[in-house]
Amino acid sequence: MNQGTDIGGRHSRFGSMGVFRFWILDFGFWIGYLQEINPKSKIQNLKSVSLLLLTLLMPASAFAQSEGRVLALAEAALQERYPGDAYRLRVRVKRVEGTFDDEGGLRLDFPAQDRLPRGTTQVKLYAGSDAEGWTKAGWALLYIARYDSVVIARAALRSGDEVTPGDVSFAWMETTTIRGSLLQPGAWRALSRDDAVFAARAIGEGRIIRHDAVRPAYAAETGATVMMRFERGGLHLNLACKARETGHVNDEIRLYSTDTGKTYRARLTAPGAATWIETL
Predict the structure, then answer these.
(1) What is the distance between the alpha carbons of residues 53 and 97, in angstroms, rounded to a whole number?
(2) Which one of 149, 189, 193, 205 is most buried, by most CB atoms within 10 A?
(3) Which bin fits 223, alpha (ψ -120 to 50), beta or left (φ > 0)?
(4) C-alpha distance from residue 257 to each of 179, 227, 238, 261 (Å)
(5) Are the C-beta atoms of residues 120 and 141 closer than 8 Å to each other?
(6) Cα(210)–Cα(178) distance, integer angstroms
(7) pTM for this structure?
(8) Beta-bridge partners for 199
(9) CA-CA distance, 34 to 3, in Å (whole number)?
(10) pLDDT tens per residue across all 280 residues of the chain
């Protein structure tokens, strides 16, 4: 048998019994040295010492092998469950706990959920095979980073400011800890293609723009003139009204007519145009 391998042929952290004895002696030397320079200090918790010794003696390759295996299983599971979004996810293994054969079958199960996982996520590990069945073998703690294409404000914007293409830029970045619906470049292009875009609230320079932070131009603003199409029982009229509130196309708003002295509820069909719904 070559030095540096165990019976199973796997690489050993220590390589030989001589190195093993060296670590034991080295560990004992430091404990004795600490007690010599500070006689009052004594190691009370022998369990902690034992755990420390076992950690020093445990093959480092075993940790790496387990983490690498779990990482590959996690990436495959995400690709299978979220084929259209797996490219946005990056997985890091934080911890692996369990007992399983390095050469045996291993399965990883994510928690049942429809939404994309993000942040720290615990998964279950099962050992076995489809033919012989699976038994619980442990668990792993993963950190799943999410990346997105986002729209970023290149300048500070006040509520009501028009947002031009020169005011924004696009970036691919991690958004794991950012909550809310973020404006995607495709949504920005669709919003700004045919009409002006305005800030719905103040947006700081360099900040990621959320979907509800911008809006299209209003089809009617408070006090603006809106032509309302009135149709009822064969009567068809176009009434010039004043908007009592702001709204976009397809919004329902209140309109007031000075000619009739009445208030109506109407649906905006285009900028400055609406159809009657009811008389209030």
Answers:
(1) 19
(2) 149
(3) left
(4) 44, 10, 11, 6
(5) yes
(6) 10
(7) 0.61
(8) 214
(9) 33
(10) 333 323 333 333 333 333 334 444 444 544 554 455 555 544 444 444 444 444 444 444 445 678 888 999 999 999 999 999 999 999 999 999 887 777 788 999 998 877 888 999 999 999 888 888 899 989 999 999 999 999 999 999 999 899 999 999 999 999 999 988 999 999 999 988 878 899 999 999 999 999 999 998 899 999 999 999 998 877 888 999 999 999 998 999 999 999 889 999 999 999 999 999 999 8
**Helix (H/G/I), strand (E/B), else coil: 189:** helix
Type of residue at 96: V
Q: Letter for the amino acid at 187?
A: A
| Tokens representing residue 41 in the block | 């200090």
Distance (Å, whole) CA 108 – CA 74: 7
Q: Are 123 and 140 spatial neighbours (Cβ–Cβ below 8 Å)?
A: yes
205's CB contacts (< 8 A; 6+ apart) are 153, 154, 155, 156
Cβ proximity of 125 and 69 under 8 Å:
no
Q: Which amino acid is at 68?
A: G
At residue 6, the 3 state secondary structure works out as coil
Q: What is d(CA 48, CA 28) in angstroms, rounded to the nearest whole number? A: 14
Lookup result for tokens 């031009």: 164
User: Looking at the chain, which runs of residues are DSSP E strands?
Assistant: 89-98, 106-109, 119-129, 133-153, 168-174, 197-199, 214-216, 225-232, 235-243, 252-257, 262-270, 273-279
String of DSSP letters for 108-148:
EEPPS-SSPP-EEEEEEEEEEETTTEEEEEEEEEEEEEEEE
Torsion of CA 29, 34, 40, 42, to 10 degrees: -60
